[in-house]
Amino acid sequence: METLHNYINGALVESLTNRFSPVYNPASGEKIKQVALSTVKDTEDAIASAQDAFAKWSRLSPLKRSRIMFKFKSLLEENSDRLAKLISQEHGKVYSDALGELTRGLEVVEFACGIPHLQKGEHSANVGTGVDSHSLMQPLGVCAGITPFNFPAMVPMWMFPISLATGNTFVLKPSEKDPSLAIEIAKLLSEAGLPDGVFNVVNGDKESVDVLLTDDRVQAVSFVGSTPIAEYIYSTASAHGKRCQALGGAKNHCIVMPDADLDMASNAIMGAAYGAAGERCMALSVVVAVGDETAEQLISRLQNHISKMKVGPGVISEGENDMGPVISQQHKEKIESYIDSGVQQGASLLVDGRELKVADHETGFFVGPTLFDNVSPEMSIYQEEIFGPVLAIVRVSDYDTALELINKHEYGNGTAIFTRDGETARQFSENVQVGMVGINIPIPVPMAFHSFGGWKRSIFGPLNVHGNDGVRFYTRMKTVTSIWPASVRLKQHESSFVMPTLG
Length: 503
Ligand code: NAD
Prior knowledge:
By secondary structure, the protein is of the alpha/beta class. The chain folds into 2 domains: 2-248 and 458-480, Aldehyde Dehydrogenase, Chain A, domain 1; 252-439, Aldehyde Dehydrogenase, Chain A, domain 2 (3-Layer(aba) Sandwich). It is built from 17 helices and 23 strands. It is globular and about 85 Å long. The structure holds nicotinamide-adenine-dinucleotide (NAD). Nicotinamide-adenine-dinucleotide (NAD) binds next to helix 8 and helix 9. This is methylmalonate-semialdehyde dehydrogenase (CoA acylating). Its EC number is 1.2.1.27.
Protein backbone atom coordinates (compact mmCIF):
# COMPACT_ATOMS: atom_id res chain seq x y z
CA MET A 1 0.00 0.00 0.00
CA GLU A 2 1.26 3.45 -0.94
CA THR A 3 2.50 5.64 1.92
CA LEU A 4 2.59 9.39 1.38
CA HIS A 5 5.50 11.16 3.00
CA ASN A 6 6.83 14.71 2.66
CA TYR A 7 8.23 16.99 -0.02
CA ILE A 8 11.22 18.91 1.29
CA ASN A 9 13.92 20.85 -0.55
CA GLY A 10 12.62 19.84 -3.97
CA ALA A 11 12.38 16.07 -3.33
CA LEU A 12 10.18 13.39 -1.81
CA VAL A 13 11.52 12.68 1.66
CA GLU A 14 10.55 9.82 3.94
CA SER A 15 9.26 10.90 7.33
CA LEU A 16 11.00 9.70 10.49
CA THR A 17 7.64 8.88 12.05
CA ASN A 18 6.15 5.63 13.23
CA ARG A 19 2.63 7.14 13.18
CA PHE A 20 0.44 6.83 10.08
CA SER A 21 -3.14 7.78 9.23
CA PRO A 22 -5.36 5.87 6.77
CA VAL A 23 -6.57 7.52 3.55
CA TYR A 24 -9.88 6.16 2.27
CA ASN A 25 -11.80 6.05 -0.96
CA PRO A 26 -15.06 7.36 0.56
CA ALA A 27 -17.14 5.93 -2.28
CA SER A 28 -16.12 2.35 -1.43
CA GLY A 29 -15.06 2.77 2.19
CA GLU A 30 -11.74 1.07 1.38
CA LYS A 31 -8.40 2.16 2.79
CA ILE A 32 -6.36 3.00 -0.31
CA LYS A 33 -3.25 4.68 1.10
CA GLN A 34 -1.72 5.82 4.31
CA VAL A 35 -0.09 9.10 5.18
CA ALA A 36 2.84 9.74 7.47
CA LEU A 37 2.12 11.88 10.53
CA SER A 38 5.35 13.82 10.60
CA THR A 39 7.57 14.30 13.61
CA VAL A 40 8.85 17.57 15.06
CA LYS A 41 12.20 16.92 13.32
CA ASP A 42 10.52 16.39 9.90
CA THR A 43 8.69 19.70 10.29
CA GLU A 44 11.82 21.51 11.43
CA ASP A 45 13.64 20.13 8.38
CA ALA A 46 10.95 21.59 6.10
CA ILE A 47 11.18 24.96 7.85
CA ALA A 48 14.99 24.90 7.59
CA SER A 49 14.75 24.17 3.87
CA ALA A 50 12.31 27.09 3.38
CA GLN A 51 14.53 29.35 5.48
CA ASP A 52 17.63 28.50 3.41
CA ALA A 53 15.78 29.13 0.14
CA PHE A 54 14.36 32.50 1.24
CA ALA A 55 17.40 34.79 0.70
CA LYS A 56 17.83 33.92 -2.98
CA TRP A 57 14.13 33.57 -3.83
CA SER A 58 13.14 36.88 -2.22
CA ARG A 59 15.82 38.72 -4.21
CA LEU A 60 14.66 37.34 -7.57
CA SER A 61 12.79 39.94 -9.57
CA PRO A 62 8.98 39.69 -9.27
CA LEU A 63 8.82 39.20 -13.04
CA LYS A 64 10.94 36.03 -12.80
CA ARG A 65 8.80 34.72 -9.95
CA SER A 66 5.69 35.48 -11.97
CA ARG A 67 7.02 33.53 -14.98
CA ILE A 68 7.30 30.43 -12.80
CA MET A 69 3.65 30.96 -11.79
CA PHE A 70 2.70 31.13 -15.49
CA LYS A 71 4.44 27.84 -16.14
CA PHE A 72 2.78 26.29 -13.07
CA LYS A 73 -0.62 27.44 -14.33
CA SER A 74 -0.03 25.68 -17.69
CA LEU A 75 1.03 22.50 -15.89
CA LEU A 76 -2.11 22.59 -13.76
CA GLU A 77 -4.20 22.84 -16.91
CA GLU A 78 -2.33 19.99 -18.62
CA ASN A 79 -2.77 17.78 -15.55
CA SER A 80 -6.30 18.82 -14.61
CA ASP A 81 -7.99 15.53 -15.56
CA ARG A 82 -5.56 13.45 -13.50
CA LEU A 83 -5.70 15.86 -10.54
CA ALA A 84 -9.51 16.07 -10.56
CA LYS A 85 -9.75 12.26 -10.51
CA LEU A 86 -7.34 12.15 -7.58
CA ILE A 87 -9.42 14.73 -5.68
CA SER A 88 -12.55 12.78 -6.41
CA GLN A 89 -10.97 9.49 -5.33
CA GLU A 90 -9.81 10.75 -1.92
CA HIS A 91 -12.46 13.39 -1.15
CA GLY A 92 -15.49 11.84 -2.83
CA LYS A 93 -16.82 14.92 -4.67
CA VAL A 94 -17.96 14.39 -8.25
CA TYR A 95 -15.45 14.84 -11.08
CA SER A 96 -16.85 18.11 -12.52
CA ASP A 97 -16.94 19.63 -9.03
CA ALA A 98 -13.30 18.59 -8.52
CA LEU A 99 -12.46 20.29 -11.84
CA GLY A 100 -14.35 23.38 -10.59
CA GLU A 101 -12.25 23.45 -7.43
CA LEU A 102 -9.07 23.25 -9.52
CA THR A 103 -10.27 26.14 -11.68
CA ARG A 104 -10.97 28.33 -8.65
CA GLY A 105 -7.46 27.57 -7.36
CA LEU A 106 -5.93 28.20 -10.76
CA GLU A 107 -7.55 31.63 -10.83
CA VAL A 108 -5.47 32.61 -7.79
CA VAL A 109 -2.36 31.43 -9.66
CA GLU A 110 -3.43 33.69 -12.56
CA PHE A 111 -3.85 36.57 -10.09
CA ALA A 112 -0.38 35.86 -8.68
CA CYS A 113 1.07 36.06 -12.22
CA GLY A 114 0.30 39.79 -12.00
CA ILE A 115 2.55 40.22 -8.97
CA PRO A 116 4.96 42.71 -10.61
CA HIS A 117 2.02 45.08 -10.75
CA LEU A 118 0.46 44.13 -7.41
CA GLN A 119 3.68 44.46 -5.41
CA LYS A 120 4.70 47.87 -6.80
CA GLY A 121 3.94 49.87 -3.69
CA GLU A 122 3.11 53.56 -3.73
CA HIS A 123 5.06 56.65 -4.64
CA SER A 124 4.52 60.32 -3.92
CA ALA A 125 6.78 62.94 -5.38
CA ASN A 126 7.40 66.16 -3.42
CA VAL A 127 5.84 65.21 -0.13
CA GLY A 128 8.02 68.09 1.07
CA THR A 129 10.19 70.41 -0.92
CA GLY A 130 12.61 68.10 -2.74
CA VAL A 131 11.42 65.17 -0.65
CA ASP A 132 9.97 61.98 -2.15
CA SER A 133 8.26 59.08 -0.45
CA HIS A 134 7.75 55.52 -1.65
CA SER A 135 6.71 52.23 -0.12
CA LEU A 136 8.21 48.78 -0.54
CA MET A 137 6.10 45.67 -0.07
CA GLN A 138 8.68 43.21 1.13
CA PRO A 139 8.19 39.48 1.70
CA LEU A 140 8.04 38.19 5.27
CA GLY A 141 10.17 35.03 5.11
CA VAL A 142 8.95 31.48 5.77
CA CYS A 143 5.14 31.25 5.70
CA ALA A 144 3.02 28.24 6.65
CA GLY A 145 -0.37 27.02 5.42
CA ILE A 146 -2.60 24.54 7.28
CA THR A 147 -5.55 23.39 5.20
CA PRO A 148 -8.83 21.42 5.50
CA PHE A 149 -9.98 18.27 3.74
CA ASN A 150 -12.85 19.78 1.79
CA PHE A 151 -10.79 21.63 -0.86
CA PRO A 152 -7.47 19.76 -1.08
CA ALA A 153 -6.39 21.81 -4.13
CA MET A 154 -8.26 25.14 -3.98
CA VAL A 155 -7.60 26.14 -0.36
CA PRO A 156 -3.80 25.61 -0.54
CA MET A 157 -3.97 27.62 -3.78
CA TRP A 158 -5.71 30.48 -1.93
CA MET A 159 -2.43 30.79 -0.05
CA PHE A 160 0.85 29.71 -1.60
CA PRO A 161 0.65 31.31 -5.10
CA ILE A 162 0.51 34.80 -3.58
CA SER A 163 2.96 33.93 -0.83
CA LEU A 164 5.53 32.59 -3.33
CA ALA A 165 4.96 35.30 -5.94
CA THR A 166 5.58 38.03 -3.35
CA GLY A 167 8.94 36.41 -2.50
CA ASN A 168 8.18 34.24 0.53
CA THR A 169 8.93 30.56 0.94
CA PHE A 170 6.25 28.16 2.12
CA VAL A 171 5.55 25.05 4.20
CA LEU A 172 2.15 23.46 3.57
CA LYS A 173 0.55 21.07 6.07
CA PRO A 174 -2.43 19.65 4.14
CA SER A 175 -5.33 17.69 5.61
CA GLU A 176 -4.34 14.15 6.53
CA LYS A 177 -7.67 12.94 5.07
CA ASP A 178 -6.85 13.68 1.40
CA PRO A 179 -3.15 14.52 1.24
CA SER A 180 -2.18 13.45 -2.30
CA LEU A 181 -2.93 16.74 -4.04
CA ALA A 182 -0.37 18.65 -1.99
CA ILE A 183 2.43 16.34 -3.08
CA GLU A 184 1.28 16.52 -6.73
CA ILE A 185 1.24 20.33 -6.53
CA ALA A 186 4.77 20.34 -5.08
CA LYS A 187 6.02 18.18 -7.96
CA LEU A 188 4.38 20.46 -10.54
CA LEU A 189 5.89 23.56 -8.91
CA SER A 190 9.35 21.96 -9.20
CA GLU A 191 8.61 21.08 -12.83
CA ALA A 192 7.63 24.71 -13.41
CA GLY A 193 11.12 25.76 -12.31
CA LEU A 194 10.54 26.69 -8.67
CA PRO A 195 13.90 26.48 -6.86
CA ASP A 196 14.30 23.70 -4.30
CA GLY A 197 13.13 24.55 -0.80
CA VAL A 198 10.80 27.38 -1.82
CA PHE A 199 7.72 25.15 -1.42
CA ASN A 200 7.63 22.23 1.01
CA VAL A 201 4.92 19.82 2.14
CA VAL A 202 4.81 18.27 5.59
CA ASN A 203 2.07 15.73 6.11
CA GLY A 204 0.82 15.33 9.63
CA ASP A 205 -1.46 16.38 12.43
CA LYS A 206 -1.27 18.53 15.58
CA GLU A 207 2.34 17.51 16.22
CA SER A 208 3.61 19.16 13.03
CA VAL A 209 1.08 22.03 13.21
CA ASP A 210 2.37 22.98 16.66
CA VAL A 211 5.91 23.30 15.30
CA LEU A 212 4.67 25.63 12.54
CA LEU A 213 2.85 27.74 15.14
CA THR A 214 5.78 28.12 17.51
CA ASP A 215 9.03 27.95 15.51
CA ASP A 216 10.67 31.40 15.41
CA ARG A 217 11.63 31.01 11.74
CA VAL A 218 7.97 30.94 10.63
CA GLN A 219 6.73 34.49 10.08
CA ALA A 220 3.10 33.99 9.06
CA VAL A 221 0.45 31.29 9.33
CA SER A 222 -2.63 30.91 7.11
CA PHE A 223 -5.21 28.46 8.37
CA VAL A 224 -8.52 27.24 7.00
CA GLY A 225 -10.59 24.70 8.94
CA SER A 226 -13.13 24.38 11.72
CA THR A 227 -13.71 27.25 14.16
CA PRO A 228 -12.38 25.64 17.37
CA ILE A 229 -9.10 24.80 15.63
CA ALA A 230 -9.01 28.25 13.96
CA GLU A 231 -9.24 29.87 17.41
CA TYR A 232 -6.41 27.69 18.69
CA ILE A 233 -4.24 28.43 15.63
CA TYR A 234 -4.87 32.18 15.82
CA SER A 235 -4.17 32.48 19.54
CA THR A 236 -1.06 30.26 19.47
CA ALA A 237 0.48 31.79 16.34
CA SER A 238 -0.25 35.34 17.60
CA ALA A 239 1.23 34.54 21.03
CA HIS A 240 4.40 33.52 19.19
CA GLY A 241 4.59 36.83 17.35
CA LYS A 242 3.38 35.57 13.98
CA ARG A 243 1.04 37.20 11.54
CA CYS A 244 -2.03 34.97 11.28
CA GLN A 245 -5.23 34.63 9.27
CA ALA A 246 -7.45 31.77 10.45
CA LEU A 247 -10.68 31.05 8.58
CA GLY A 248 -13.23 28.92 10.40
CA GLY A 249 -16.61 27.27 10.03
CA ALA A 250 -19.97 28.52 8.82
CA LYS A 251 -23.74 28.26 8.89
CA ASN A 252 -24.83 30.02 5.73
CA HIS A 253 -28.43 31.24 5.50
CA CYS A 254 -30.36 32.46 2.52
CA ILE A 255 -33.56 34.47 2.70
CA VAL A 256 -36.27 33.66 0.20
CA MET A 257 -38.67 36.59 -0.15
CA PRO A 258 -42.29 36.16 -1.30
CA ASP A 259 -41.45 37.99 -4.57
CA ALA A 260 -38.50 35.70 -5.44
CA ASP A 261 -38.35 33.72 -8.65
CA LEU A 262 -38.93 30.39 -6.91
CA ASP A 263 -37.80 28.24 -9.84
CA MET A 264 -34.51 30.11 -9.93
CA ALA A 265 -34.19 30.03 -6.13
CA SER A 266 -34.96 26.32 -5.77
CA ASN A 267 -32.46 25.36 -8.49
CA ALA A 268 -29.81 27.54 -6.89
CA ILE A 269 -30.51 26.22 -3.37
CA MET A 270 -30.24 22.59 -4.50
CA GLY A 271 -26.67 22.99 -5.79
CA ALA A 272 -25.63 25.16 -2.85
CA ALA A 273 -27.06 22.83 -0.20
CA TYR A 274 -26.19 19.42 -1.63
CA GLY A 275 -23.21 20.06 -3.96
CA ALA A 276 -20.06 18.36 -2.60
CA ALA A 277 -22.44 16.64 -0.09
CA GLY A 278 -22.68 19.93 1.80
CA GLU A 279 -18.97 19.79 2.65
CA ARG A 280 -18.28 23.38 1.64
CA CYS A 281 -17.71 26.29 4.00
CA MET A 282 -20.00 28.26 1.67
CA ALA A 283 -22.67 25.53 1.51
CA LEU A 284 -26.15 26.84 2.11
CA SER A 285 -27.54 24.99 5.11
CA VAL A 286 -30.44 27.22 6.21
CA VAL A 287 -33.25 28.67 4.11
CA VAL A 288 -35.23 31.41 5.84
CA ALA A 289 -38.55 31.48 4.01
CA VAL A 290 -40.56 34.68 4.45
CA GLY A 291 -44.22 33.66 4.72
CA ASP A 292 -45.85 30.21 4.81
CA GLU A 293 -46.90 30.43 1.17
CA THR A 294 -43.26 31.00 0.11
CA ALA A 295 -42.15 28.06 2.28
CA GLU A 296 -44.80 25.68 0.87
CA GLN A 297 -44.05 26.53 -2.74
CA LEU A 298 -40.32 26.32 -2.26
CA ILE A 299 -40.51 23.00 -0.41
CA SER A 300 -42.59 21.36 -3.11
CA ARG A 301 -39.99 22.39 -5.71
CA LEU A 302 -37.08 21.21 -3.53
CA GLN A 303 -38.73 17.83 -2.87
CA ASN A 304 -39.26 17.37 -6.58
CA HIS A 305 -35.59 18.15 -7.32
CA ILE A 306 -34.36 15.90 -4.51
CA SER A 307 -36.38 12.97 -5.81
CA LYS A 308 -34.40 13.19 -9.07
CA MET A 309 -30.94 13.52 -7.52
CA LYS A 310 -28.34 10.90 -8.41
CA VAL A 311 -26.06 9.98 -5.52
CA GLY A 312 -23.04 7.75 -6.05
CA PRO A 313 -19.31 7.68 -6.68
CA GLY A 314 -17.56 10.82 -7.92
CA VAL A 315 -16.09 9.27 -11.06
CA ILE A 316 -18.17 6.93 -13.21
CA SER A 317 -17.62 5.72 -16.75
CA GLU A 318 -20.74 7.32 -18.22
CA GLY A 319 -22.62 10.45 -17.17
CA GLU A 320 -22.18 11.85 -13.70
CA ASN A 321 -23.77 11.72 -10.28
CA ASP A 322 -24.99 14.92 -8.62
CA MET A 323 -23.53 14.15 -5.23
CA GLY A 324 -20.82 11.86 -3.87
CA PRO A 325 -20.12 10.40 -0.41
CA VAL A 326 -18.94 12.30 2.67
CA ILE A 327 -15.32 12.12 3.80
CA SER A 328 -15.35 9.34 6.42
CA GLN A 329 -17.47 6.80 8.29
CA GLN A 330 -17.05 8.91 11.42
CA HIS A 331 -18.33 12.01 9.62
CA LYS A 332 -21.27 10.06 8.15
CA GLU A 333 -22.24 9.00 11.68
CA LYS A 334 -21.91 12.56 12.96
CA ILE A 335 -24.22 13.86 10.22
CA GLU A 336 -26.73 11.08 10.94
CA SER A 337 -26.67 11.94 14.63
CA TYR A 338 -27.55 15.54 13.74
CA ILE A 339 -30.51 14.21 11.75
CA ASP A 340 -31.54 12.16 14.82
CA SER A 341 -31.31 15.28 16.98
CA GLY A 342 -33.40 17.34 14.54
CA VAL A 343 -36.18 14.75 14.79
CA GLN A 344 -35.89 14.57 18.60
CA GLN A 345 -35.99 18.36 18.93
CA GLY A 346 -39.21 18.61 16.91
CA ALA A 347 -38.24 19.63 13.35
CA SER A 348 -40.27 18.06 10.50
CA LEU A 349 -38.08 15.62 8.56
CA LEU A 350 -39.35 15.77 4.97
CA VAL A 351 -36.55 13.85 3.27
CA ASP A 352 -34.37 11.46 5.28
CA GLY A 353 -30.84 10.86 3.95
CA ARG A 354 -30.07 8.20 6.59
CA GLU A 355 -31.93 5.60 4.56
CA LEU A 356 -29.87 5.90 1.39
CA LYS A 357 -28.15 2.78 0.03
CA VAL A 358 -26.00 3.10 -3.09
CA ALA A 359 -25.97 -0.08 -5.17
CA ASP A 360 -22.54 -1.77 -5.35
CA HIS A 361 -21.22 0.79 -2.85
CA GLU A 362 -22.85 -0.42 0.35
CA THR A 363 -19.69 0.20 2.38
CA GLY A 364 -19.23 3.75 1.02
CA PHE A 365 -19.71 6.77 3.29
CA PHE A 366 -22.98 7.96 1.75
CA VAL A 367 -25.65 10.16 3.34
CA GLY A 368 -28.56 11.11 1.13
CA PRO A 369 -29.92 14.64 0.69
CA THR A 370 -31.92 15.55 3.78
CA LEU A 371 -34.58 18.23 4.17
CA PHE A 372 -36.06 19.58 7.40
CA ASP A 373 -38.98 22.00 7.70
CA ASN A 374 -40.13 23.96 10.77
CA VAL A 375 -36.61 24.30 12.16
CA SER A 376 -36.28 26.78 15.01
CA PRO A 377 -33.26 28.69 16.32
CA GLU A 378 -32.81 26.69 19.56
CA MET A 379 -32.27 23.40 17.68
CA SER A 380 -28.73 22.06 17.26
CA ILE A 381 -29.36 21.48 13.53
CA TYR A 382 -29.87 25.26 13.31
CA GLN A 383 -27.07 26.38 15.58
CA GLU A 384 -24.21 24.09 14.61
CA GLU A 385 -22.30 23.50 11.40
CA ILE A 386 -23.26 20.00 10.19
CA PHE A 387 -21.03 19.98 7.09
CA GLY A 388 -23.23 17.45 5.34
CA PRO A 389 -26.18 17.33 2.90
CA VAL A 390 -28.74 18.59 5.42
CA LEU A 391 -30.90 21.60 4.62
CA ALA A 392 -33.03 23.32 7.25
CA ILE A 393 -36.06 25.48 6.43
CA VAL A 394 -36.91 28.15 9.01
CA ARG A 395 -40.23 29.93 8.52
CA VAL A 396 -40.57 33.60 9.49
CA SER A 397 -43.31 36.13 8.89
CA ASP A 398 -41.26 39.10 7.66
CA TYR A 399 -37.92 40.31 6.29
CA ASP A 400 -36.80 42.04 9.52
CA THR A 401 -37.10 38.80 11.51
CA ALA A 402 -35.12 36.95 8.79
CA LEU A 403 -32.33 39.54 8.88
CA GLU A 404 -32.20 39.52 12.68
CA LEU A 405 -31.87 35.72 12.68
CA ILE A 406 -28.84 35.85 10.38
CA ASN A 407 -27.24 38.68 12.32
CA LYS A 408 -27.63 36.84 15.63
CA HIS A 409 -25.93 33.66 14.41
CA GLU A 410 -22.38 33.14 15.67
CA TYR A 411 -21.06 32.48 12.15
CA GLY A 412 -20.94 35.02 9.35
CA ASN A 413 -19.26 33.43 6.35
CA GLY A 414 -21.70 33.62 3.42
CA THR A 415 -25.35 34.50 2.88
CA ALA A 416 -27.79 35.18 0.07
CA ILE A 417 -31.17 36.71 -0.61
CA PHE A 418 -33.60 35.73 -3.34
CA THR A 419 -35.85 38.62 -4.33
CA ARG A 420 -36.92 40.67 -7.34
CA ASP A 421 -36.88 43.86 -5.32
CA GLY A 422 -33.71 45.95 -5.66
CA GLU A 423 -34.37 48.05 -2.58
CA THR A 424 -34.71 44.97 -0.34
CA ALA A 425 -31.55 43.48 -1.82
CA ARG A 426 -29.68 46.74 -1.24
CA GLN A 427 -30.92 47.04 2.34
CA PHE A 428 -29.86 43.42 2.93
CA SER A 429 -26.34 43.83 1.58
CA GLU A 430 -25.81 46.95 3.68
CA ASN A 431 -27.14 45.57 6.96
CA VAL A 432 -26.36 41.87 7.06
CA GLN A 433 -23.50 40.96 9.42
CA VAL A 434 -21.86 38.48 7.07
CA GLY A 435 -18.66 38.73 5.01
CA MET A 436 -19.82 37.43 1.60
CA VAL A 437 -23.25 38.27 0.26
CA GLY A 438 -25.13 36.94 -2.76
CA ILE A 439 -28.08 38.66 -4.41
CA ASN A 440 -29.91 35.84 -6.20
CA ILE A 441 -26.50 34.07 -6.14
CA PRO A 442 -26.44 31.13 -3.73
CA ILE A 443 -22.67 30.68 -3.20
CA PRO A 444 -21.09 34.12 -3.43
CA VAL A 445 -17.43 33.03 -3.41
CA PRO A 446 -15.41 36.09 -4.48
CA MET A 447 -13.14 35.77 -7.50
CA ALA A 448 -9.37 35.55 -7.03
CA PHE A 449 -8.84 39.30 -7.57
CA HIS A 450 -11.27 40.06 -4.72
CA SER A 451 -10.71 38.70 -1.22
CA PHE A 452 -12.46 35.79 0.51
CA GLY A 453 -13.41 35.86 4.19
CA GLY A 454 -16.34 35.84 6.57
CA TRP A 455 -17.22 37.81 9.69
CA LYS A 456 -17.79 36.90 13.32
CA ARG A 457 -16.57 33.40 14.32
CA SER A 458 -15.90 32.49 10.69
CA ILE A 459 -12.55 34.31 10.68
CA PHE A 460 -9.81 35.34 13.10
CA GLY A 461 -7.38 38.02 11.98
CA PRO A 462 -7.87 41.25 10.05
CA LEU A 463 -6.97 40.18 6.51
CA ASN A 464 -8.93 37.89 4.20
CA VAL A 465 -7.37 35.44 1.74
CA HIS A 466 -6.34 36.20 -1.86
CA GLY A 467 -7.00 39.44 -3.77
CA ASN A 468 -5.42 42.59 -2.36
CA ASP A 469 -5.77 41.36 1.23
CA GLY A 470 -3.69 38.30 0.27
CA VAL A 471 -0.94 40.52 -1.11
CA ARG A 472 -1.00 42.62 2.07
CA PHE A 473 -0.96 39.54 4.28
CA TYR A 474 2.19 38.16 2.66
CA THR A 475 4.10 41.45 2.50
CA ARG A 476 5.39 43.92 5.04
CA MET A 477 5.26 47.55 4.08
CA LYS A 478 8.27 49.78 4.43
CA THR A 479 7.97 53.48 3.62
CA VAL A 480 11.07 55.32 2.47
CA THR A 481 11.29 59.12 2.65
CA SER A 482 14.24 60.62 0.83
CA ILE A 483 15.90 63.88 0.05
CA TRP A 484 19.05 64.17 -2.04
CA PRO A 485 22.22 66.10 -1.25
CA ALA A 486 21.67 68.92 -3.72
CA SER A 487 18.51 69.93 -1.89
CA VAL A 488 20.21 69.42 1.44
CA ARG A 489 23.02 71.72 0.33
CA LEU A 490 20.52 74.48 -0.35
CA LYS A 491 19.16 74.25 3.14
CA GLN A 492 20.96 75.16 6.33
CA HIS A 493 22.41 72.10 8.07
CA GLU A 494 20.69 72.44 11.38
CA SER A 495 19.32 69.86 13.78
CA SER A 496 15.60 69.98 14.28
CA PHE A 497 13.95 68.64 17.41
CA VAL A 498 10.34 68.99 16.34
CA MET A 499 8.22 66.34 14.58
CA PRO A 500 9.13 66.61 10.86
CA THR A 501 6.38 68.31 8.86
CA LEU A 502 8.28 68.35 5.54
CA GLY A 503 5.84 70.67 3.68
P1 NAD B 1 -10.26 20.74 10.78
O1 NAD B 1 -10.30 21.97 11.60
O2 NAD B 1 -10.54 19.43 11.44
O3 NAD B 1 -8.78 20.57 10.12
C1 NAD B 1 -8.17 21.62 9.42
C2 NAD B 1 -6.64 21.45 9.55
O4 NAD B 1 -6.27 21.57 10.92
C3 NAD B 1 -6.13 20.10 9.06
O5 NAD B 1 -4.93 20.28 8.37
C4 NAD B 1 -5.90 19.34 10.37
O6 NAD B 1 -4.87 18.39 10.28
C5 NAD B 1 -5.52 20.44 11.33
N1 NAD B 1 -5.89 20.12 12.72
C6 NAD B 1 -6.97 19.40 13.13
N2 NAD B 1 -7.01 19.33 14.47
C7 NAD B 1 -5.94 20.04 14.92
C8 NAD B 1 -5.45 20.35 16.21
N3 NAD B 1 -6.05 19.90 17.31
N4 NAD B 1 -4.34 21.10 16.30
C9 NAD B 1 -3.72 21.56 15.21
N5 NAD B 1 -4.14 21.30 13.94
C10 NAD B 1 -5.24 20.55 13.80
O7 NAD B 1 -11.20 20.99 9.53
P2 NAD B 1 -11.65 19.96 8.40
O8 NAD B 1 -12.61 18.97 8.98
O9 NAD B 1 -10.48 19.44 7.66
O10 NAD B 1 -12.44 20.95 7.41
C11 NAD B 1 -13.77 21.30 7.58
C12 NAD B 1 -13.92 22.63 8.28
O11 NAD B 1 -13.20 23.64 7.58
C13 NAD B 1 -15.36 23.12 8.33
O12 NAD B 1 -15.60 23.68 9.59
C14 NAD B 1 -15.42 24.19 7.24
O13 NAD B 1 -16.41 25.17 7.41
C15 NAD B 1 -14.05 24.77 7.38
N6 NAD B 1 -13.69 25.49 6.16
C16 NAD B 1 -13.72 26.84 6.20
C17 NAD B 1 -13.41 27.56 5.06
C18 NAD B 1 -13.45 29.06 5.07
O14 NAD B 1 -13.00 29.64 4.12
N7 NAD B 1 -13.96 29.70 6.11
C19 NAD B 1 -13.06 26.89 3.88
C20 NAD B 1 -13.02 25.50 3.88
C21 NAD B 1 -13.34 24.80 5.04
